[in-house]
Amino acid sequence: MNDFKRIVKLAKRLTFERMFSTRMYIMLPVLLLFIPGMAWGFSDPNIVLPGGHQPESAMEVLFYASLGVVFGATMCAVLLSYDGVSRERASGVLELRLSQPMSRAHQSIAMILGSWKAILIPTWLLLLVSVLVVRYRMGEWISLTDFLVYFSSTALILLWYVLFTLLASSYTREQGTAISFGVGMWFLFTFLWALITTMVAFASGVSIGQENDASWVMLEGALDLLSPNGVYHHLLETRLPQIDRGISSWQSWSMGLVWTIIPSWMFIRRMEKILP
Amino acid sequence: MEEVVLRLEGATYRHSVYAPLPLKPWRSIKGPGIFEANISLQKGTILGLVGPNGAGKTTLLRVMAGILPLQTGCVYSGSDDLMRTEQQLRQMVGHMPEQVRWQGRKTVRQALLELGEMRHASEKRIDKLLTLVGLTTRKDSALSELSQGMRQRLTLGVALLGSPKILLLDEPLNGLDPVGAAAFVALLKSLTEKGVSIVLSSHQVEGLIGIIDRLALMHRGHILAEGTLEGVAKSLKLDSKTEIKGTGSPPRFKKYGINPSQVHLEEKNGYWNALLEQAQPHLLTKLVNDGVEITEWSIRQPNVVEMLCAATGQSLEDVGLEVASSAYVPLRTFGGEEE
Question: What is the fold, at CATH topology level, of the domain defined by B241-300?
């Protein structure tokens, strides 16, 4: 068996273990309400969004419904992975893993893939349900490109949260500290980022929250590249021509790549040096 | 001379200790660990690693298991085949850490299969191992349901996954009931007969005597002595001792030409107990002829604790209670927080 197959097999075991864990059963209703629930709500033909705006296309509805991913699925990713390393470290199982001849980098990749797939599979299934819901309510399919962008962007944001959480988990010895890191980071990017954007805008002399002010829109768009949630929305906005926040597609995808490569590299490096 | 399977030469690993300064809050310094350890492991033998808490036994085992990288020194497979990566080392070594707290809903078999993937262990091999460690009847039990003894057996099973040439066992007898411990020792003996070399670290030093073939005494990260029990005792210039127990009045040992400073005498409720620093094979006849009431008599080899005291040049209390250095060693504890 080659190393790739070993990684895949190990990841599969981890995915199975986490996907059918008690905490997944607890999170599943939340995901169900957030993802297909939002798709149902936003695809209502009579919906009027703040500012009197009405969604014009299926992809726009799914863009709004992606809030379910940002609020629900990312939190679920954090809760599924927060003890990915710390629990095994505390119990001594990590020492057993580290004493196996499989390279630590490969073990880390298996850990990333396993934890990622555990949240990705249910989220993708629910996104698929959302697509069907939107089709049922609006009578419109999204295009294949929209579909690919929507699903791959969602996969990426979940991967980023899994990576941050695993990284935090590898630095902590207590489960409580690990979960605090994960939830704190989720809180920062999900709720506090708006505050940071406001503060930067204030310091830069940009009028805050003025949607018609190009400098505010540009600043917000640029700062969003520094947040995984922001990059996720930028990626989805590449399929919404009516939205222009001064960030081109290649910039969004490049930042997506940066958010993927740097935390992955940091986690693998960390695991190569970790003490049991 | 027996075949050497693993040799450590000048092996050093020192733990990083956090020592912040006002202008360098991230500063860390090199702390305790192991210092220039030289040790040879012979084929089919059991080496007992003995030392007080914080002596560096676990660190040495982790270095030998390829978990901690060597900072200086070399590891040779056989007597002179240099091992360049920790991965090479991990290939030939099975490691059983101290008290793994298996938990979760995963079954025993699933846990073994998962770790077995990393060693290409087949399902057939896993089932064989379950039989070998006596967990066949519990193979479908959840890990959380296992007793401490069963957890130890499972950890041993994991250590044996890749049919290793060398087995490193850190406090393997902890948590085992006497019958389980006896079965465990029998299993270790059978493994050595198959050519497996074992390094066994334990603080239950007296229990080691019947198990080990060789002994390594560790203190403050140094290997102070290594060899057979007799060899180590001889190198430390320790003689056999005479232990006598009796009733009534204890004899005056000076009368038999024994220096009183070499006699440790205790009296209690009409019984007495004397420990003579040297072997006195002819003393028994003389005492009996003089009408001294003897209930027990033995000439014994110096025990491991005595050897450790002799090797460190410290008293029993000093060796046993000096654990300050171990507080700096990052241990697997729940109170440890971030390293």
Answer: Alpha-Beta Plaits (3.30.70)
Q: Which residues of B touch A93 (CB under 8 A)?
A: 100, 102
Residue position matching structure tokens 């002595």: B225
Q: Which residues from chain A sit within 8 angstroms of residue B65, using beta carbons? A: 99
The residues of A whose Cβ lies within 8 A of any Cβ of B are: 1, 6, 9-10, 13, 17, 21, 87, 89-93, 95-103, 107, 171-174, 177, 275-276
Rounded CA separation B234/B253 (Å): 26
| Residues A106, B179: Cα–Cα separation, whole Å | 40
Give the pLDDT of residue B180: 83
Tokens at B131, concatenated? 């039989």
Nearest to B90 among A91, A99, A177 (CB): A99
Say yes or no: B91 contacts chain A, CB-CB below 8 A. yes
Residue B335: is its pLDDT beyond 50? no
Distance from the Cα of B145 to chain A's closest Cα (Å) equals 15
Task: Transcribe B243-307 into DSSP letters.
Answer: EEEEESSPP-GGGGT--GGGEEEEEETTEEEEEESS--TTHHHHHHHTT-EEEEEEEE---HHHH
Nearest CA distance, A186 vs chain B (angstrom):
20
C-beta atoms of A93 and B102 within 8 A = yes
B67 in contact with A, Cβ within 8 Å: yes
Q: What is the ipTM of this complex?
A: 0.83
> What residue segments make up the domains of chain B, in order of their start?
4-236+304-328, 241-300
A45 to chain B, minimum CA–CA distance in Å?
46
Q: What is the pLDDT of residue B252?
A: 87
Question: What is the residue-wise DSSP string for A160-211?
Answer: HHHHHHHHHHHH-SSHHHHHHHHHHHHHIIIIIHHHHHHHHHHHHTPPTT-T
Residue B330 is predicted with a pLDDT of 39
How far is the C-alpha of A180 from the C-alpha of A182, rounded, in Å? 5
Contacts of residue B223, Cβ cutoff 8 Å, sequence gap at least 6: B37, B38, B39, B216, B217
Contact B100 A100 (CB under 8 A): no
In chain A, the number of structural domains is 1
At B191-240, the pLDDT tens digits run 999 999 999 998 777 777 778 899 999 988 999 999 988 888 888 888 78
Site of tokens 């005479």: B242
Residue B202 touches partner A, C-beta closer than 8 Å = no
DSSP A55: -
Architecture of the domain spanning B4-236+304-328:
3-Layer(aba) Sandwich (3.40)
Higher-pLDDT residue of A100, B177 = A100
